[in-house]
Amino acid sequence: MDLTYITRQVTRVARLTGTYLRTERKNFRQEAIIEKNTHDYVSYVDQEAEKMTVRELNNLLPEAGFITEEGIVKQSAEGLSWVIDPLDGTTNFIQDMAPYCVSIALREGEELLVGVVYEVCRDECFYAWKGGGAFLNDIPIHVSGNPIEKAFVGPELPYDAEAYKPVFLRVADHLYGKVASIRIGGSAASSLCYVAAGRYDGWGEDQLNIWDYVAGILLVREAGGKVTDFTGREDFSSKHHVVLFISKKAYLKRVDTMFIIPIVTFL
């Protein structure tokens, strides 16, 4: 399989879907919103973007199956499968706030082969393939090497506030004032790309779905970063699991004693 060629084709698909999102955002109306769960939204834009993305990817690799957020298409495949989030950062999109993006990954079994994330608002296409490095608009990217006191980190807030609140309070307690700055972006896929590009030094979130993070995992790893769950395990890519993304092993080691262990007591 020519992963370089496939990656290039997937970037084309991601940009195509992103163009649709950009166009629809200009005329988007609040009455189009459906609340799937508490504070978890979807609209016709998510659904149509998914259909478009699936159609294009099916033409590229007809033998591959799909794992999609909106569940419009479900195909089974023991080997190759696409993992798709056609609009990651839906709430940002609804509010006309950056960032939001298209996230596409290709995997074979548990092995990640291709990861592409197109951030619509900044017209930035992040992509990586196994063993090929990570890129932003054709320029190689790498994670940062900042020490923790200079780190720019992005702990995210998932929808289930009741379950996650004690975890986030502990995160804030152990990070606020000890790192340079903390930001919440609203798009898991975009945040992972920002770690890969060295904009964030670390990022983490609980209660993620597989389509939220698999493309970003490959990008971070190919950019020289480390991806684990909150206990330090790296074997979690098919689970609904707590995930922590840290740019450098040295930073992760510093966080182990300060950050991860206290969080685990709440899980």
Give an overview of the whole structure.
- The chain has helices spanning 3-26, 44-60, 90-94, 161-175, 188-196, 210-222, 249-264, and strands at 33-37, 40-43, 65-68, 80-88, 101-108, 111-119, 124-129, 134-136, 139-140, 152-155, 181-182, 202-205, 226-228, 243-246.
- The strands form three sheets. The protein has a seven-stranded mixed beta sheet, with helices on both faces. The chain has a five-stranded mixed beta sheet with strand order 11-10-12-14-13, sandwiched between helices.
- It is 37% helix and 25% strand.
- It is α+β, with helices and mostly antiparallel strands.
Helix count, per DSSP? 7
Strand content: 25-35%
Q: Strands of the largest sheet, in order across it?
A: 3-4-5-6-7-8-9
The main β sheet shows up as: 7 strands, mixed
Class per helix and strand makeup: alpha+beta
Number of strands: 14
Shape: globular
Q: Radius of gyration, rounded?
A: 18 Å
Q: Classify the helix fraction into a percent range.
A: 25-40%
Question: Which runs of at least 5 residues are low in confidence (pLDDT < 50)?
Answer: 248-267
Following the backbone from N to C, one meets helices and strands in this order, namely HEEHEEHEEEEEEHEHEHEEH
Taking all residues together, what is the mean pLDDT? 81
- What distance lies between the first and last C-alpha atoms, to the nearest angstrom? 40 Å
